[in-house]
């Protein structure tokens, strides 16, 4: 906890300031003694006395107050242990919701009950068993031999499911997280209204406190919070409009560039049957798409419906986050499991061993667990975002960012697609849609002239990796990949053109053969090969089809960024 306090001090030093005064900190602890002790150790590192506040040279500590509720009243942190919550929880099971869930863990319940000699009926019972075993393990005690069959796995996965069950209804969620999340919101609003001088609200809770907040905010995590875990909720104030306007301008300019390049193909007038637009489930991708469409299809003539408003509504499609395997497969359960198994147990283990010094360095200084290359990939995304927001990275990051992290990110694209199954998970749905839409268009079964995808930087990386096209830099904001379908002598082929975030011109990319074109039947072969061991997927090999002309266009753009800049208030 002391190291965590030091890490928070390093991250927010300029914001918090050197001197502690009671009016800058609102600290709360769970009613459990270990949480209160942890908070005190944390505060000792976060606010060591400075200057005149050093009252004893050999004691670099100062008293800092915090608040705590009594255990039988503590609905801020431990509602799940209260009798009224337990009653609601049991009713949720008895109404039939629990029985279907119990079937999959019944053998685990029987095994645990037999060896632990405690009645095991629900996920909650296994949840409590996990808490006991993890506590003993944390204290360095030797666990009984029988427990090694179920701890840490599969008990860890059961606990993750239990967190969702604990908030299975609106009433259960209110009991579990209602008071805390409401306090976080109201404290934030008070600060915005200048009714509070607090710079930091600090809560010392339990592992499930962190998970309940993340569940309420619909943030997905595949690991359980460990001791010393920290969740920071930062309130940002937009003190400049530069980055927001720059983001909009970049996407608006991209729409104009696409319009100039493909004006003859698209024509002047927008109609719904000429465009198939898709966006990632992330808001920023959908906002970016809307801005691109504004400049790509401004209303003309009778379509101008409001003078002074050079815009018209254009529909687009988007999947739900939990189902978004077109753009977001890299965060879904199946892929995450396969990737980590490959990097820790499979052929990818060699890569993990090679980069271990960098993993160790980032873990040591960043106080975040680093297991494999994907963790550095995600770290690169976070740091790039912070730099884009105008924030200054800690001094220690300069040893690894931008290099060698930039190079490692490019390497990770290949690692993430090292097996056929991983490749299917990441890019299968998108590349299949691109192929089938192209075939449908050349068979004259579609009127679409343009299919537009608003995805992420890694979406472009995955497509280029699948097509085996070499690239030397990570896609930035407002980058664009154009897949043009051309017709020549009754044959159809694609060309891939790329515009990065820094240049207005598109570059025609080369395929591994050195050629600048890939025939549609060759792309069909590549996609079919991707699915050779999937029996239920059947695809036709036929390609229908007079010098060369552009017949159809598919484009992938990356989202705008840099909306907020200056941290004005932070919650932990």
UniProtKB/TrEMBL annotation:
SUPFAM superfamilies membership: Phosphoglycerate mutase-like
Keywords, sorted A to Z: Disulfide bond, Glycoprotein, Hydrolase, Signal
GO molecular function, one term: acid phosphatase activity
Top-level division of the source organism's lineage: Eukaryota
EC number: 3.1.3.2
CDD domains for this protein: HP_HAP_like
Catalytic activities: a phosphate monoester + H2O = an alcohol + phosphate
Family affiliation: Belongs to the histidine acid phosphatase family.
Protein name as it appears in the record: acid phosphatase
Native source organism of the sequence: Oryctes borbonicus
């Amino acid at each position: 906890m002391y190291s965590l306090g030091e890490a928070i001090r390093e991250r927010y030093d300029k914001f918090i300031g050197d001197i502690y005064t009671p009016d800058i900190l609102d600290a709360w602890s769970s009613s459990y003694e270990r949480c209160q002790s942890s908070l005190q150790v944390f505060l000792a590192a976060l606010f060591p006395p400075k200057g005149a506040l050093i009252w004893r040279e050999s004691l670099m500590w100062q008293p800092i107050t915090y608040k705590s509720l009594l255990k039988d009243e503590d609905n801020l942190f431990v509602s799940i242990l209260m009798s009224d919550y337990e009653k609601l929880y049991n009713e949720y099971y008895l109404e039939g919701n629990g029985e279907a869930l119990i079937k999959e863990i019944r053998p685990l319940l029987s095994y645990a009950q037999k060896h632990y000699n405690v009645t095991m009926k629900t996920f909650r019972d296994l949840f409590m068993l996990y808490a006991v075993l993890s506590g003993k393990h944390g204290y360095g005690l030797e666990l009984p031999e029988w427990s090694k069959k179920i701890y840490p796995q599969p008990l860890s996965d059961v606990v993750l499911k239990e967190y969702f069950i604990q908030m299975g209804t609106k009433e259960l969620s209110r009991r579990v997280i209602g008071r805390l999340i409401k306090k976080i919101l109201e404290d934030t609003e008070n600060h915005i209204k200048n009714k509070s001088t607090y710079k930091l609200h600090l809560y010392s809770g339990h592992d499930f406190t962190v998970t309940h907040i993340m569940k309420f905010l619909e943030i997905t995590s595949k690991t359980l919070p460990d001791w010393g875990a920290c969740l920071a909720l930062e309130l940002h104030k937009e003190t400049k409009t530069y980055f927001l306007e720059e983001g909009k301008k970049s996407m608006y300019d991209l729409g104009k560039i696409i319009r100039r390049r493909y004006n003859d193909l698209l024509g002047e007038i927008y109609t719904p049957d000429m465009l198939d637009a898709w966006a990632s489930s992330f808001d920023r991708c959908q906002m970016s798409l809307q801005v691109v469409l504004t400049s790509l299809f401004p209303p003309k003539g009778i379509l101008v419906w409001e003078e002074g408003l050079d815009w018209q509504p254009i529909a687009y499609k988007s999947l739900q986050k939990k189902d978004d395997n077109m753009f977001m497969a890299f965060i879904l359960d199946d892929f995450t499991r396969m990737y980590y198994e490959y990097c820790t147990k499979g052929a990818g283990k060699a890569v993990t061993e090679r980069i271990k010094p960098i993993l160790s360095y980032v873990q040591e200084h960043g106080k975040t667990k680093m297991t494999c290359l994907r963790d550095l990939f995600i770290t690169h995304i976070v740091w790039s975002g912070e730099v884009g927001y105008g924030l200054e990275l800690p001094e220690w990051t300069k040893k690894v960012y931008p290099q060698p992290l930039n190079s490692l990110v490019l390497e990770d694209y290949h690692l993430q697609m090292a097996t056929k199954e991983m490749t299917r998970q990441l890019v299968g749905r998108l590349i299949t849609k691109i192929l089938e839409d192209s075939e449908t268009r050349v068979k004259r079964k579609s009127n679409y002239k343009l299919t537009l995808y608003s995805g992420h930087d890694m979406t472009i990386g995955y497509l280029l990796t699948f097509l085996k096209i070499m690239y030397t830099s990570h896609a930035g904001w407002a980058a664009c990949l154009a897949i043009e379908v051309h017709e020549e002598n009754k044959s159809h082929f694609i060309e891939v053109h790329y515009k990065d975030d820094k240049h207005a011109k598109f570059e025609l990319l080369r395929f591994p053969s050195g050629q600048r074109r890939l025939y549609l039947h060759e792309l069909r072969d590549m996609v079919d090969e991707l699915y050779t061991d999937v029996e239920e997927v059947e695809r036709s090999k036929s390609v229908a089809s007079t010098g060369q002309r552009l017949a159809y266009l598919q484009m992938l753009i990356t989202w705008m960024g840099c909306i907020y800049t200056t941290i004005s208030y932070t919650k932990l």
